[in-house]
Amino acid sequence: MCKYGVAVVIIAFLLYHSLYFEKLQKIKEQQRRGTFSAAEYARDFWDNHLFTVLDKAVDVKELIELFNTNMAEAVRRYGRTPGVSRVYAYLLQGEGKILTAGEEGLEVSVRQPQMNPDIFIATGPYIPGNAVRDASGLIDVSEFSDTMKFNEISGEINKIVVKEVIGPFLDKNPQMGMTVRFFGATQVAQDATEKHPFGHLVSDTGEVREIQLVRVVPITLELK
Amino acid sequence: MVKKLVTLLILALAMPLFICGCKQKKQAAADGQEAQGKGKIAVVISTLNNPWFVVLGNTAKERAEELGYEAVIFDSQNDTAKESDHFENIIAGGYAAILFNPTDADGSIANVRRAKAANIPTFCIDREINANDVAVTQILSDNYAGCVELGQYFVKKMNGKGQYVELLGILGDNNTWNRSKGFHSVVDNYPELKMVAEQTAEFDRTKAMEVLESILQAHPDIDAVFCGNDAMAMGAYQALVAAGKADRVMVFGFDGAKDVIDSIRDGKIVATGMQFPKKMARMAAEQADDYVNGKRDFPQKVPVAVELVTQENIAKYTAYGRQSEE
């Protein structure tokens, strides 16, 4: 009887160590990734390449003016897209007065009179989308054997923004009335101004019309 | 004499028909030469058991024909073995180009490689292959970015909290994961949004209905279902109707298929991501024509943006595209 018990234990031991279960998704993921590391790629992009193109960032006031008056020209001069899209990414820079500072970001006025907001600078705990990757114009989707890698890079860039740009900035305790200077990226659809213009517009009677804000993902943020 | 007259009459009546017949034959021969002159284009589609892919295939075929080619559609039925057989026949058949919607991002590479070795250029549409040195170009929906936008709308509609189910597409297709990851890159930042089940329904309407019916047994109190395509969204909606929950569970799809666009208009489905199958298919056919005419400089991957379609902006959209582009 004891012999059978030992045999069962040995067989169970051998079976346990000869079979190995792993999720199919995990296996496919590992095969797909190969040696590629989106985090390393994003790190190199941030440290060695992105800041070399910030001199191409357009002034935020000029960009808002173009969005509202000649979107096609804004696209032609400053817009970038990795493929076929009605949404274009832009590198932009400028400074303005903080009007509100909330959990998700800052409402900032960049045009006189600095009473109503023009832009929203994202300072929330996560940043979605591809604004920084696409606005830089430095990463070509055709370099990648699968587009998931291209997309993972965006996720990693956004993590750097949260950790290394937004975190230290919030530590300085930005307040209403302070002046903020920034470089950043935004994505705007070609037909975005169909309903409402960007930024505050004050009519002759002093009435402020309905508007939308340019949403900026920051690349640098500093208080003046 | 009467016989002669009757014979002459018959000949007189038959002559115009004969001449006409000859003309038609000559025209047909000329048309044949024209088609033969530009060659044949193969349109290989992953499955025709989904209206979205039928539109993709038919549009590619129609555009190729408009450009002067004879075009033939091959249905791979989501089976890489069938797809491989199609490629063998296409290579043997001396086609000028292949407009290709692959069944598997990895499994389809070998087929494209064989076509390339036989000097037949391949143009991928919608679905990607995990190689950037075998197809001439790959025109792909930007699924990840589309689902980032869809995810943001999902969070807004759910007010950042609730229980939901995700129905995945075919596990070997990159589109499945690009969509899922784009969605989760947003939604996972909201800890009060709980995904209670994530299962594949392989982009299939019937399977989606069965899978969700089963999930509802274990999780009757879900608030939303995110589906990796519109066929699954319709299947999920059917399951919810059968369970009497269609009014309080929100369904989100992805594709821009006719039945989902109609359902968004009717307030049954909440939102979808509009891909542009007609635009992508036309682009692929036109690029194949450019290639045949000598052009060689193509970007390897061309992401085509996906647009969020909701009950608020449905007026701008029609099935498979924008109103303004129809």
Short summary:
The complex is a heterodimer of chains A (224) and B (326). In chain A, 39% of the residues lie in helices and 21% in strands.
Could you characterize the architecture of this molecule?
The complex is a heterodimer of chains A (224) and B (326). By secondary structure, chain A is of the alpha/beta class. Chain A contains 7 helices and 6 strands. Chain A has helices spanning 2-18, 24-33, 38-49, 60-69, 71-78, 131-136, 147-171, and strands at 58-59, 87-101, 105-109, 119-122, 179-189, 214-223. A 5-stranded mixed β-barrel of chain A has the order 2-3-4-6-5. Chain B is an alpha/beta fold and 326 residues long. Chain B contains 10 helices and 14 strands. Chain B has helices at residues 2-38, 51-66, 80-92, 109-117, 143-158, 174-187, 205-218, 230-242, 258-265, 277-292, and strands spanning 40-45, 70-75, 97-100, 122-126, 137-141, 162-168, 193-200, 224-227, 250-252, 271-274, 301-304, 307-310, 317-318, 321-322. In chain B, the strands form 4 sheets. Chain B has a 6-stranded parallel sheet, with helices on both faces. A 4-stranded parallel sheet of chain B has the order 7-6-8-9, sandwiched between helices. In chain B, helix 2 links the parallel strand 1 (40-45) and strand 2 (70-75). In chain B, helix 3 (80-92) packs parallel to helix 4 and helix 7 (205-218) crosses helix 8. The longest helix of chain B is centred in the first third of the chain and has 37 residues, at 2-38. Classes of the chains: A alpha/beta (224), B alpha/beta (326). Chain A binds chain B through residues 24-25, 28, 31-32, 81-87, 125-126, 128-130, 141-148, 151-152, 154-155, and chain B through 105-106, 128, 130-132, 140, 142, 144-145, 148, 151-152, 171-172, 174, 177-178, 181-182, 185-186, 189, 279, 283, 299-305, 307.
